[in-house]
Amino acid sequence: MSKQEELKALHQKWFKECKCRLKESATQPVPGDGPANAKVVFIGEAPGKAEDLEGKPFVGAAGKFLNEMLESIKFKREDVYITNVVKYRPPNNRDPLPEEKEACSKWLEEEIKIINPKLIVFLGRHSLQNFFPNEKISEVHGKILKKKTKIGDTFFALYHPAAALYNGSMREVLIEDFKKIPKVLAKISSFVQ
Q1: For residue 88, what are the domain limits?
Q2: CATH code assigned at 84
Q3: Full strand arrangement of the beta sheet holding 154-158
Q4: Integer CA distances (angstroms), 5 to 1, 8, 82, 113, in order
Q5: pLDDT value, residue 77
Q6: Contact between residue 90 and residue 77 where contact means Cβ atoms under 8 Å apart
Q7: How many other C-beta atoms are found inside a 10 Å radius of the C-beta of residue 67?
Q8: Contact partners, residue 178, CB within 8 Å, separation at least 6
Q9: Quick one: which of 160, 181, 22, 40 has its CA closest to 112?
């Protein structure tokens, strides 16, 4: 079975087994999307309205902005894997509750283990604090974070694209931080070889 088939099977398994109570109000699950051999995985918070309807992560306004930023560093969306901490849309786009994150945690863990990326990029505080509970996004954005976890050991924190859509100064910071990703990847590759 190829890694892509493994991912597809994993999502099918979790569509049935996930106990997240957001299932009750969401239109459908929103699994991660992208190649199973991606070097970079982006982890957001939870699906929004557009994602809930389409069944793919980051397809609304924040997703369009993410795509623009990917293009600015010569990446295509097809080059990266994009997922969320929670796989179902919270009502009215509220923050996911701890028990909802917990209910989706094994799903996230297993999809990232299959991909085995070189770099995991957190999009926003919920994603960051899921793995680094004591860190503040305002203090660690644009920085490499190293820590052995179940999903990897090299991370990079960014503000969430949605936050930058509503705050012009944050938008500039996010664009500048995003431009560091190729350098971070190059640095990781020089250690790995």
Answers
A1: 3-192
A2: 3.40.470.10
A3: 81-84, 40-44, 119-123, 154-158, 144-146
A4: 6, 5, 17, 14
A5: 95
A6: no
A7: 17
A8: 69, 72, 73, 158
A9: 40
Q: Are strands 144-146 and 40-44 parallel, antiparallel or unpaired?
A: unpaired
Query: What is the pLDDT, as a whole number, of residue 89?
Result: 97
| Environment class of 165 (CB within 10 Å of its CB; exposed 0-12, middle 13-18, buried 19+) | middle
Per-residue confidence (pLDDT) for residue 26, from 0 to 100: 96
| Res 5: pLDDT | 96
Helices (H), 44-180: 49-54, 61-72, 98-115, 125-131, 137-140, 161-166, 168-178
Token pair recorded at residue 102: 């917990």
pLDDT at residue number 191: 58
CB 177, CB 140: distance < 8 Å: no
Q: Which residues of the chain have pLDDT under 50?
A: 193
Overall domain count for the chain: 1
Q: What is the pLDDT of residues 56-96, one digit of tens each?
A: 999 999 999 999 999 999 999 999 999 999 999 999 989 99
Contacts 24+ apart (CB under 8 A), 10-15: 10/107, 10/110, 10/111, 10/114, 11/111, 14/87, 14/106, 14/107, 14/110
Place of tokens 């902005």: 65
